[in-house]
Design brief:
Layout lengths: L5 H6 L7 E2 L7 E4 L2 E5 L4 H10 L20 E2 L2 E5 L4 E2 L4 H14 L8 H4 L3 H9 L9 H13 L8 E4 L6 E3 L6 E2 L4 E4 L1 H15 L5 H5 L6 H20 L7 H17 L1
Length: 265
């Protein structure tokens, strides 16, 4: 994907050439001390929140950068400060701890309107996981998710804005609080966001089952794990189809499904 044009750089008052950053799905660029990426539906809302979020000793966030005209988005791009640190998917307990502090800090925010119009595989997966949307998936997907669907039951938890993709989006730097970046906004209970992080770590990053046990005190843990798995699996099926389940993904998900069911009671 093409990087920000000179027009974009000029709009934000940036003089250094844009350099592609590692990670960020190949869509994140750096010019000097500023990070640029293409704007999405929540960009303005997120910028306004992060600009006003009080400083915390528990976490850092990238403060958004206004353009020279005072706007958060210019020519389809948004900008934020470059933070020190690097992600480390092995440090999942620390990821979950900092997520708790971040979610507490944003707990009072109202539900953003852009969520109603967001239409992408991740939003589809989220809605399916909460029985707000139906999905006729591939045969392998239906087979794998069937026990999760059977164990699904309603819960009574308070929803709020949460970060829905934590494991690879928390950066660590010596002497500094962890930094939370690339915030995909969802309106769900915080324990769901933690369950997604745990499920991701178990399926993709080599975490041990004890990780789930250490966080089992979170509200409705079994049901949140069930929803986390349905969310991820639906998204994968929407994006990649039946071929996805013919590879190592199936053997990655099967033991985690079994583990989640053991918490569902």
């Amino acid at each position: 994907m093409d990087g920000p044009s000179e027009e974009v750089l000029d709009a934000f008052g940036l003089s250094e050439p844009a350099m592609l950053l590692p990670g960020g799905q190949g869509e994140t660029w750096r010019s000097g001390a500023v990070v640029l990426k293409r704007a999405v539906s929540e960009s303005v809302w997120r910028a306004e929140v992060l600009a006003e979020l009080p400083e915390s000793e528990a976490f850092r966030v990238p403060r958004p950068v206004r353009s020279l005209r005072g706007e958060w988005v210019e020519f389809g791009w948004e900008a934020g400060e470059l933070l020190a640190g690097a992600t480390d998917v092995r440090r999942q307990d620390e990821v979950l701890t900092v997520a708790g502090a971040f979610h507490e800090a944003v707990a009072g925010l109202a539900r953003p309107d852009f969520l109603d119009g967001r239409n992408d595989p991740w939003s589809d997966g989220d809605r399916v996981a909460w029985c707000e949307q139906s999905y006729d998936g591939s045969p392998a997907y239906v087979e794998l998710t069937a026990p999760l669907v059977d164990a699904w039951r309603p819960v009574e938890l308070v929803a709020q804005v949460v970060h829905g993709d934590l494991p690879g989006n928390v950066m660590f730097a010596d002497g500094l609080p962890p930094a939370i970046i690339d915030w995909p906004v969802y309106w769900r209970p915080p324990s769901w966001a933690s369950a997604v992080a745990v499920a991701d770590a178990l399926c993709w990053y080599g975490a041990e089952p004890e990780l789930a046990a250490r966080w089992a005190h979170l509200p409705e843990w079994g049901q949140m794990l069930i929803r986390a798995l349905i969310y991820r699996m639906t998204t994968e099926d929407v994006v990649r189809g039946s071929e996805f389940w013919e590879g190592p993904a199936r053997t990655s998900y099967e033991p985690v499904i079994e583990l989640a069911l053991s918490y569902a009671g």
